[in-house]
Amino acid sequence: MAIRTQESLSGFIASDPQLTYTERGDARFYARFGQENFQREEDGSFTKLEPSFGNLVLYRATAERAFERFTKGDQFVAEGYAHEYTYERDRQSIAGEEFVAKKIGHDTARTRYDVDRTPRQAMNRDATGQAFEPPRQSAPATTSLSM
User: Which regions are flagged for Basic and acidic residues bias (predicted)?
Assistant: First the structure.
């Protein structure tokens, strides 16, 4: 079986995320993202250069979850695709590019966090398809991020 791959993007959220809705009513997450750049020197050291910036968008339920969980400055890794677009403004054609993320998460190499493994739904199904109540935890874990 072939391994499925997709484009990816890593960086940091450079602006305050925005949650809007399309004409069809789909949620749309938008933020500017930044990527750090470095130049390798002859002695093997690295010099930090100015970051580069772009547009990051997500749609539907993924957009709503990302809006709840991401804030300016968060480091992330996303899977999706680059989308080039053009539009007209004042009779001029304007071209741009955005990264459309299908999946996004905090960058584990740069973010400390706790994982909440409590079930998302109160009722789950076992391997036979029978409903069962998961064991209750005395104090559910919460997700907290710090950088």
Answer: 110-119
**Positive/negative CA dihedral, 106, 108, 110, 111:** positive
Over residues 85-102, the pLDDT tens digits come to 999 999 999 999 999 999
Domain 7-106: CATH superfamily is Nucleic acid-binding proteins (2.40.50.140)
Going from N- to C-terminal start, the domains of the chain cover: 7-106
- The enclosing H or E element of 65 equals helix 60-69
What token pair was written down for 58?
């997500």
- What span, in angstroms and rounded, lies between the C-alpha atoms of 78 and 70? 12
